TrEMBL record:
UniProt site positions, description: Interacts with tRNA: 80, 166, 169, 282, 285
Residue ranges of every copy of the DUS-like FMN-binding domain listed in the record: 1-297
Keywords linked to the UniProt accession: Flavoprotein, FMN, NADP, Oxidoreductase, RNA-binding, tRNA processing, tRNA-binding
Main function: Catalyzes the synthesis of 5,6-dihydrouridine (D), a modified base found in the D-loop of most tRNAs, via the reduction of the C5-C6 double bond in target uridines. Specifically modifies U20 and U20a in tRNAs.
Protein name: tRNA-dihydrouridine(20/20a) synthase
Binding site for FMN: 53, 122, 154, 194-196, 216-217
Catalytic reactions of this protein: 5,6-dihydrouridine(20a) in tRNA + NADP(+) = uridine(20a) in tRNA + NADPH + H(+); 5,6-dihydrouridine(20) in tRNA + NAD(+) = uridine(20) in tRNA + NADH + H(+); 5,6-dihydrouridine(20) in tRNA + NADP(+) = uridine(20) in tRNA + NADPH + H(+); 5,6-dihydrouridine(20a) in tRNA + NAD(+) = uridine(20a) in tRNA + NADH + H(+)
Any Pfam family the entry gives: Dus
GO molecular function: tRNA-dihydrouridine20 synthase activity
Record-stated family: Belongs to the dus family.
Superkingdom per UniProt: Bacteria
Record PROSITE patterns: UPF0034
Amino acid sequence: MMDWTDRHCRFFHRQLTQRALLYTEMVVADAIIHGQRERLLGFDAAEHPVALQLGGSDPLKVAEAARIGEDFGYDEINLNVGCPSDRVQSGTFGACLMKTPMLVADCVAAMKAAVKIPVTVKCRIGVDDQDPESALDTLADGVFAAGADALWVHARKAWLQGLSPKENRDIPPLDYQRVYRLKARLPERFIGINGGIPSVEDAVGHLDHVDGAMLGRAAYHTPGILASVDASLSREEPAAFDFAALIETMADYTARHIEQGGRLGHVTRHMVGLFHGLPGARRWRQILSTDATRPGAGPDVLKAAFASIDFNTEAAA
C-alpha cells in the first residue's frame, strides 16, 4: 500500500497485534540501491516480524535490493507482482509482470541466492485478457520452482488498460475460489489470499482453505479490528484491549519522532480510524485531522483526542 504503510503506520499496527506479519509499502529496487536507504528502509525494532516489499523486474537489481533489506534486519522479502498503478507499469514491474512469469521466476531465483531469509511473491490471478486458470498456475509453478517460500494472491484480475488503480481494487470481481483451487493443487506450498477481506472474522474464515489471509484497506481504515487478531488466530475470545496504554505508547513514540525533526501528523494520520463506531469517534477524527496537523502540535493533542472517546456507551458516533 504505497504511501500508506510507512514505518509510523507499522509501529502503530504492531501495538494492536503481536502475531500478524506486517508489510512495508512497495519500495522500488532502484531506489534502495541508489537512494537514501535509512529513509526508505529504516524501521523500529518493535515492528518485527516485518516484510520488505520490493518492486522491480531486473533479477540483479532485486537481488541486490533484497540483500540490502536483509542487512537492515527485515524478516522476509516480498516481490510485488500485483500492483496496477501507472507508476508501476511505467517501470515495468508490479502487475504487468504477470505477463512474463519466467522473468518473475528469474527474479525469485536471484533473490533466493542473495539472502537467507524467506522470499515471497504477491500477485493477481491474472491481468487483462489472461485466463486466470492458466495464468495463475503458470506463475505459481514458476516461482515455486525458483524457490519462493510463499505466494500471496490478490483474488481479482488487474486491468492495466481502461481502469484506474482505484477501480482495479473494486471493479474486477473477486474470485476467492480460484485461490482455493490453487491451494488444493499445491497442498504442500504456502498460499495466502488477499483482496477485499473486510474483517478479521472473514480473514480467519479463509484459513479453512488457504494458509494465510492479508488485510489491507480494512486494517488501515479501521485499525481497531487488529486488536482481535491475536486471539482470533488462537480461536479464542479476545480480551478487552487496553487502549489507554496504546495511546501512552503512541504519545511517547510521537514525542521521539518530533524530537528527531518530525511532525505529529506524520504518525496520527494513520490513527484516524482507530475508534470507528465508538461514541466520540467523530471528535477524535476531527482533532487528528485538524489540531494534530498544525505546526508545533505535540503528543498532548493525541491525549486530548483520546479523552473524547466514551467506552461506556454503546451508541455509535
